[in-house]
Design a protein that fits this description.
91% helix; transmembrane; DVL
Length: 45
């Protein structure tokens, strides 16, 4: 019984790590997009 609980915990840790990496990647993309929009809005001829 204890073994199956540890397997479940390790799977949860891996999925959390993948989710964290995905969220970090999305956060980076949003940051870049936001910076581009700000530059376009603030850009004068």
């Amino acid at each position: 019984m204890k073994n199956s609980a540890t397997v479940r915990d390790s799977k949860r840790k891996v999925s959390c790590r993948k989710l964290g990496g995905y969220l970090r990647e999305q956060k980076g993309k949003l940051y870049i997009i936001r910076r581009c929009v700000v530059m376009l809005l603030c850009w004068h001829d």
